[in-house]
Amino acid sequence: MSNSIQLRFFQDGCGYPHSTFYVPALPIVFTLFVLLQNTLLAQAPAGVIRGVVNDVSGAVVAKASLRVSQPQFRGGRVVGTDASGRYYITNLEPGDYEIEAFAPGFDTEVKLVKLLVGDQLTVNFQLHPGSVHERVLVSGQTSGINTSEFAVNGSVSQVQIQNLPLNGRNFLELARLGPGVSVTLVSNPGAFANNYSRVSIAGAQYLLTQVSVDGVTVNDRMNGGTSQNFSQETVQEFQVERFSFDPASAMSGAGGINIVTRHGTNNLHGAAFFFYRDHNMAAYPGLRRDIKHRDPFFARKQSGFRLGGPLRKDRIFWFTNFEHDWQTAALAVQNNHPIFSKLDVVYPSPLTFNQFNLRVDGKLDNANSAFVRISQDKNNNVAPASVGIFMPSNWVSSHNSALQIEGGETSVLNSRIVNDLRYAHSYLHSNSDPVSSQNCLDPVVCIGVGGPEILPFDDPAFHIGNRPSSPLAIFQTTNQLVDVLTLQHNGHLLRLGGDWEHVSLHGYRGIYEPAQITLWGPTNLLQSPSLYNALPASLRDPTAPPPTLEDILQLPLRSFITGIGNVSFPGPYHSDSTSHSNLWRLHVRDSWSMLRGLTLTFGAAYSYQTNIYNQDLKRPAYLAPIFGGDLRPPHRGASVIDPSAGLAWNVQNKSKTVIRSWAMEPTQR
Q: Where does 436-548 have alpha helices with state H?
């Protein structure tokens, strides 16, 4: 039994080896882009194993050595204990490890440890007198407990991902296994580009959740949320962070998802799959039977493969996977009106996904390892926007293409210093257009296709014609460089790092193209008999045939809205310079084992970002009395300092009760 007591405070101040985006043309959206930038930098999701080596009397063994290795690979890393018998093994990828502790005059003790993504485990050893050549294997697998970190995070393992049932095979749904985490899946992200999976942590908006893959972010830098989707076959496991307050990752967000991708081993391994589901195994749309559509068609086909193995045994490994998803959903349109409900329909919503991933890992030498990964996501769909299921002519046709190329190198400089370097290039091209007569074919239910949006005042559920927020296009390109240096000395685990991110955003968004027209509805005209009686029978008699577009246009005009001006983003003024943003971040963190069972962690991060506000536009002259004559462009908020501190107390060193406490206070300049 292990207990964890958490106290949280938050104040918001605003051997020894050597060696293509389209965005809304609205200022508020750019402001959202700026605010989200502070939550995007990520850290490599590496694990740490630490502990103490004692003899049977409880005395520390100061010059013991520990070798950590993975059974499927040869070689490994060797570290030593300090004067207090402590050891640290940092920058470990998730997986199963064998740890050997040995020293002259003692038997060699061996423990098996399963390390999940981002784990900070404590594994202690007790050596018995004997020969170093005698190996003592501790029976069973040792489950280390994090007794040194103040943050409490959860992990979802590969076994869970592969074996728990998932509707649609979206692995992010398993984030719900963590407390305080909710996940929403949408059929069409609409204005939120490629964001099909929305993870909310601790009640915060899903747009604030940072998502990283192999230590670099895949967030949509404009809208928040994810910009790229990954197949379940790509993922080895992932971690759910909840208020970690780690300076290596931005602390202004509520939490994050750290994903680790699969890699090859010395064994050739693979699998192929095909999943099928149709309307015979699905509930009726809206859980309401429609006598006009007794048997709506629904089908989903998912097929693909994964395959990995060695290119050169013990040195170079490869892994690849591909998944193709094809789905036709059945969506119920319910207008809830005596006249317009004659146009109610269950209409198909097609969706296709192609997801590809290739990763190559290599051991450059005993002290250096590297990897390269290429991941691509392409999808197309025709579906209603997320605001509601309206008539099919009001749906949008989306086309998304996302690519990420990442490379990384881990260097063991000596037994106490490890460096981790990551670089990634990513892009997102997203198009969302009004449906056309080519993808909305039924002349009755596709009434108004390609025309202005029309809605009667007495029926808020009835919309036909182009969505007021389309067309929308997004071109986003990101380059990110992350470097973290980890040092261990006399009970201190020090981490120094820096991040640089360059974002380029271009696009446009049509607003009320060509117009939005609001008409007085048939029931509104009951108070004006002359107007009501002049309407076609289709708008007066619920038993008459459904109204046509010509019939609907007989309703009196109430109001209309049309968009004007340049719809590109950024605007034409200095667009080349304002479409680029640079973000720099420096951070330092020390985890200090002050006493046996008591660990104090403290650190700080400093970040600076360019092009946050309209820094090239002076304030208008009429504001001079308010600003004391200072009409310079605003620059406040370009930099942020994030200090944090926390402690973890392993009560009585029994690893049964751990008390954790932490605090942070971001300061904006």
A: 529-533
